[in-house]
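We treat protein structure as text, and this decision shapes the records that our systems exchange. Such a record has a labelled line for the sequence and another for the backbone structure tokens. The record that follows is passed on verbatim for readers who wish to inspect the format:
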Amino acid sequence: MGISITKAEVLALFLEALVYGMFFSLYFLLLVVIAQDKRERPRSGHDLILWVASVMLVFATAHLIIDVARAFAGLTGEVDPEEFFHSVTNGSFLAKTVLWMGQTVLGDCILIWRCYVVFSRKILYVLPMIAGSILYLCAASALLYDFTHSDPGSTSVFTGQYRTWIVLYFSATMYINVLASGAMAWQIVRKTRPMRRTGAVMPVLVAIVDTAALYTAGYLGLLISFLSNSDGQFAAVDVTVPLIVRCFSHHAGGF
């Protein structure tokens, strides 16, 4: 297993709090950027971005609170830490899983929407991404169903019962991110060739590439640790919740 589950949970809590703090700063920076942009362009259409970022902040905050509560319950309570943290039927585990999945759905939906806008609102260009989102929504639903219908005390996410859905979920969200980010970058470069010499396009391209690389690296590390049956994947999952929002805020700031 490599790292023990208790060490993984402590590491996860530290990293999640660290990334959450980064996102919190970016969130308020995003508010400043949107406020300034609204003065110049009252109808800039940033309300959706602000609402999504705010919902993501709520999800990330709730997830962090649950993780703190779980850490206290598992490390200072009378329960066995190994059994408590590994349990897939525990209410707090299910709650944080729903928040994590909701965060992913929000991030991917806004990414697909941006791609749709960049491609002049032509639905054909985002159909592959929509197909990917349907795929991982099905995987997420099946996974939650299996969790909630597992025998009490089930303590491994690495079994075949869950493994297929988890791998499919991780792979589908990475597919959406890479495809959408790559398509947007290509379209922006193609449409703005005359402007490239001015450097006006570079901040947007840097934001797209940076967030895509960060998001993909996070989920790739998560997938590798899961396929290795490492308890380190629990730390990786917890970090991805604020990481998704951090990527979203950076991406929005770039636009």
